[in-house]
User: Which sequence fits this backbone?
């Protein structure tokens, strides 16, 4: 079956082999299917020119813009074959792999040759080329004096999965167009190719609908009484979204819009109460300032509901060329339907026995509307309840079991389980190591495995709302997802990945990303309800390898999960049996204050000896708390 995402990539303009090393490892993420070191290096200089096949003018232009801006070199673009000299050649030619994103790249002392059959593959090749250069190439404000050289290498590459995505929640917190463009650039560097935008929810309707102009104007802004900052509110005009779609398409990234229905619609109902089962009025609220999920949903018994949705989807499909439209379908309370005469009448007319079947019927009406536009429905895994059609795509989020069952039943699925891929969760709960450990095909026979389109990270914006905080939740663990989505399955070597990810932190810094510095370090210890039973407890962990000399060290206690906070009293460092450093102050670590830092000034010591860290803490009167402990030495400024 020919992939729909692949068809989109084509419209935008057998993985095997061994990893070998004949030079310093370039620390690429994701790791290519085949990489072989070659002698020599290619140095960018005034003599360098770009030679581009006519099919790759967009890819050549983007590459030249990045290189020229940073290096200051002229890098003229030529289109005539047979140009001799110091050349970076973008050639249209078959590679050793198949698929629209397949490419090869070869670097010798005289030439850099990139080959691909399609523009998407060529673009992926250019991103590998950028990763081969010094990290400064990613920062347009980098100082001069850098020697821009590429190591000799031969790469043959193609992705494992066609869907390698990121979902950004733009409803609970509005994400600026500028931030979305930055996100697309960062995704492109690490070969992610789907940006799923969650545009509507209980906390806001973020897309302009011209037939209903008051919808976004009113439901894009919280009532004044909540005193929400201006940066967390707003909506996208259709022109802004068209420009964003074009920006993404130039980077061979597909934008998939999500319009939630029939639940998570409180913002919509606040403007159009006639679409509900009850009369209203309705008021929407910031996520942290309301009762959570409310029972008010779109009425499945009113024709007016489907007339409205038909109008909305007409405009949505005109903006987004995506072959998929996400309709949500998750966490739908059905109490209103149970007591709504029109919904009950609809069930009787259609021969439906349960409200779950009514939601399935609702979904099929939307599916027919979208099928008429040549689009497929995708929804969260609750849409399985009551039955779905064979063309519906399931996005599995409640662990992996629902998506695996859907794949085994012949449905295409995208894996974004909250056990491994929910990036609004703390790093204590889901760190890079846990993301990297996820294999979406584990336990699936080949016939079911072919229905797994790929993997996706999902970020809900109800807790971390500012761009810097969103960055920290996404990075560096988004790189682990990029690796698992692209690289062959036999490359699941955590130690090797961790080394490459640590080397990539300098790239994240050059991109201005505020990443989580503790993620790749590994915890020195943890606490659980069992380890803290019985009141105030002393927990000790061996930290000999973390104490790297005298001076200040930081101890961070990080919340993982649980209903109750941990109450910390003191942190001490022992050398042998002697306490050599102590920070004694009270703090709570829980979901409201997910981390606390203690500082220890380590005195000089002779060679040898071991260190242990002692935490004095209790469960603050509760019984359920899980956390991790990290030790770092701050960089000298």
Assistant:
């Amino acid at each position: 079956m020919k992939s729909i995402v692949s068809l989109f990539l084509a419209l935008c303009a057998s993985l095997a082999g061994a990893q070998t090393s004949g030079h310093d490892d370039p620390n690429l993420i994701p790791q290519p299917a085949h990489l072989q070191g070659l002698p020599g290096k290619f140095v960018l200089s005034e003599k360098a020119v770009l030679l581009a096949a006519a099919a790759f003018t967009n890819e050549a232009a983007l590459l030249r813009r990045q290189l020229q801006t940073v290096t200051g070199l002229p890098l003229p673009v030529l289109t005539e074959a047979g140009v001799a000299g110091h050349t970076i050649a973008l050639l249209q030619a078959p590679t050793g792999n198949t698929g629209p994103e397949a490419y090869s790249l070869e670097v010798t002392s005289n030439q850099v040759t990139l080959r691909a059959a399609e523009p998407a593959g060529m673009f992926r090749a250019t991103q590998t080329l950028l990763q081969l250069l010094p990290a400064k190439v990613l920062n347009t404000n980098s100082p001069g004096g850098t020697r821009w050289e590429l190591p000799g290498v031969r790469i043959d590459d193609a992705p494992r999965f066609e869907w390698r995505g990121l979902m950004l929640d733009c409803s609970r917190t509005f994400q600026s167009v500028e931030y979305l463009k930055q996100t697309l650039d960062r995704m492109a560097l690490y070969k992610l190719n789907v940006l799923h935008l969650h545009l509507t929810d209980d906390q806001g309707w973020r897309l302009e609908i011209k037939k209903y102009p008051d919808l976004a104007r009113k439901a894009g802004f919280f009532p004044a009484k909540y005193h929400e900052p201006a940066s967390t509110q707003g909506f996208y005009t259709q022109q802004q979204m068209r420009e964003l779609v074009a920006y993404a398409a130039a980077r061979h990234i597909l934008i998939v819009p999500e319009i939630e229905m029939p639940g998570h619609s409180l913002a919509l109902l606040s403007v159009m109460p006639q679409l509900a089962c009850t009369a209203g009025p309705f008021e929407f609220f910031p996520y942290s300032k309301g009762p959570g999920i409310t029972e008010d949903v779109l009425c499945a018994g009113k024709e007016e509901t489907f007339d409205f949705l038909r109008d909305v989807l007409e405009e949505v499909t005109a903006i987004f060329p995506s072959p998929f439209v996400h309709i949500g379908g998750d966490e739908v309370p059905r109490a209103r339907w149970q007591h709504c005469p029109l919904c009950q009448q609809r069930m009787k007319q259609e021969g439906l026995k349960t409200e779950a079947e009514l939601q399935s019927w609702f979904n099929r009406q939307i599916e027919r509307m979208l099928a008429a536009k040549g689009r497929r429905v995708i929804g969260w895994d609750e849409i399985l309840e009551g039955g779905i059609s064979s063309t519906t795509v399931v996005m599995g989020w409640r662990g992996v079991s629902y998506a695996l069952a859907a794949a085994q039943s012949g449905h295409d699925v995208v894996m974004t389980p909250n056990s491994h891929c929910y990036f609004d969760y703390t790093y204590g709960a889901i760190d890079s190591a846990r993301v990297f450990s996820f294999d979406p095909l584990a336990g699936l026979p080949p016939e079911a495995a072919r229905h797994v389109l790929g993997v996706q990270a999902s970020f809900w914006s109800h807790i971390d709302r500012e761009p810097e905080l969103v960055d920290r939740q996404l990075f560096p663990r988004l790189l682990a997802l990029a690796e698992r989505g692209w690289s062959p399955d036999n490359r699941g070597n955590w130690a090797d990945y961790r080394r490459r990810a640590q080397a990539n932190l300098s790239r994240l810094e050059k991109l201005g990303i505020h990443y989580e510095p503790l993620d790749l370090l590994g915890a020195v210890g943890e606490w659980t309800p069992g380890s803290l039973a019985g009141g105030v407890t002393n927990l000790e962990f061996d930290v000999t390898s973390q104490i790297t000399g005298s001076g200040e060290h930081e101890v961070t206690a990080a919340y993982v999960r649980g209903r109750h906070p941990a109450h910390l009293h003191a942190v001490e460092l022992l050398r042998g049996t002697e306490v050599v450093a102590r920070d004694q102050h009270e703090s709570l670590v829980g979901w409201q204050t997910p981390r606390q830092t203690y500082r220890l000034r380590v005195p000089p010591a002779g060679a040898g000896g071991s260190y242990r860290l002692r935490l004095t803490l209790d469960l603050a009167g509760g019984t359920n708390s899980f956390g991790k402990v990290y030790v770092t030495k701050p960089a000298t400024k």
